[in-house]
Amino acid sequence: MVRAGLTVERVTGAGAELADEVGLDRVTMSQVARRLGVKDASLYTHVRGLDDLRGRIALLAADEKTMRIAEATAGRAGRDALVAFADAWREYAHEHPGRYTATQTPMEIDPELATKAPGPRRAVELTYGMLRGYGLAEPDLTDAVRLLRSTFHGFVALEAAGGFAHARSPQQSWVRALDALHTLLEHWPPSREGDSA
């Protein structure tokens, strides 16, 4: 008998909380079951296993992160939008390290579940929309999206790992990095014909 009130959302939420506390790679079905006060077998009524749970955590986190970015960037353009976008990304990574890791880790997700999840699709729309404000079009849009993701993720990953031990604060470097990205986006170099694939 499944404990009353146990749902796929509660199981996913418990897994997400645990991921933030111990790290995504250390989450187990047994730990989630203990957190919910149920036997391990009860979880399998709601999720197929650990891979399915991790995929659901990734989609939950994508929705949360995207909503935070959307709220931060609403009504903003140019540098203001870029800074709000980046700050929301970094704050989410700080506050929810396990969930954030799930959004950056390639994993197999049930295609039907992924199709219904608005977070990843909305994240793409928000990112491309912000960059169109700089007058970018394809293929520059895709290149700029990759640059931003690499910069934001690289910074927060190094920061989380204690990689910024210099006396200058990471916050000062973050602000300067965003200034540099804004300048680059305003003066994006033209594509060269014959760029290698």
Description:
With 197 residues, the protein is mainly alpha-helical. The chain contains ten helices and no strands. It has helices at 8-22, 29-36, 40-43, 50-73, 78-95, 97-104, 111-116, 118-132, 140-160, 170-186. Helix 1 packs across helix 6 (97-104), helix 4 packs across helix 6 and helix 5 runs parallel beside helix 9 (140-160). The model has no long low-confidence stretch (mean pLDDT 92).
Summarize the structure.
The chain has about 200 residues and is an all-alpha fold. It has helices spanning about 10-20, 30-35, 40-45, 50-75, 80-95, 95-105, 110-115, 120-130, 140-160, 170-185.
Q: What is the makeup of the main sheet?
A: none
Question: How many H/I helices?
Answer: 10
Question: Helices and strands: which structural class?
Answer: mainly alpha
Strand content: under 5%
Query: What share of residues is helical?
Result: 55-70%
Helix and strand element order: HHHHHHHHHH
Shape from CA axes? Answer: globular
Mean pLDDT, to the nearest integer, reads 92
Protein traits:
197 residues, mainly alpha, 10 helices, globular
Give the helices and strands, then pairings.
Elements: H1 8-22, H2 29-36, H3 40-43, H4 50-73, H5 78-95, H6 97-104, H7 111-116, H8 118-132, H9 140-160, H10 170-186
Helix pairs in contact: 1-2, 1-4, 1-6, 4-5, 4-6, 4-8, 5-6, 5-9, 5-10, 8-9, 9-10
